[in-house]
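Record now logged for everyone:
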Amino acid sequence: MGELVRVDIAGAIATITMDSQHNRNALSEQLLAELHQSLDAAEEADARAVVLRHEGPAFCAGADLKERSDGPPDSTPFVSVLERLMDTERPTIAAVDGAVRAGGIGLMASCDLVVVDTATTFALTEVRIGVAAAIISVPILRRVQPGKIAAAMLTGETFDAAEARSMGLVTHVSDDVTATVGALVEGVLAGAPRAVHETKALLWSVPAMDRDSAFSAMAALSNELFAGPDARRGMQAFREKRRPDWTKSSD
């Protein structure tokens, strides 16, 4: 797709790889533009899931500070990438095999599932260069209670994968990131596409609702799905003790 980001679509899975190793996959204008292009390709292919991975020893070093110092700041492309990872109906999985710093943590946190190697380290270093982790606080604080990450954000201190898992910033810590991501992808493909889409949506919408509104909305969704063709197909497969084939169009 481009020089810094490439996308491979196989088996209904879009794998997006950041490969800007000269600056540790920093969030340059070019890298962000190519991330957008890769997400376009994933959506045009109607991928069932998106895996965001990297080449080199760093997942992402955060903002490209040279670009930021050379011209007026424009956070719009970065905000848009974060929003697209959060809002796309397909599950997004970050596959992290290297260090994550500053804005890279926001990129990672915008994914639904985050798989990191046991040796991964993290740091929110913004305060040490005179700024705040402002934009990335949006995806970070939807996953993590403020008190659990306050020290990291206020001091810029480094923390490890176990602490990131404990605070809720990552979902999986693994000695084999590729295998763990593969198992998660298989799990996504085992579900009906619309059921997976609706589940992703409710994970973020239900916590923001009051109880009565949540029960009302979820009862309506449950009734609709149980009356639909995917549920008929899924329950028939359950009775026949086989895995349903979701590649066929619904009746």
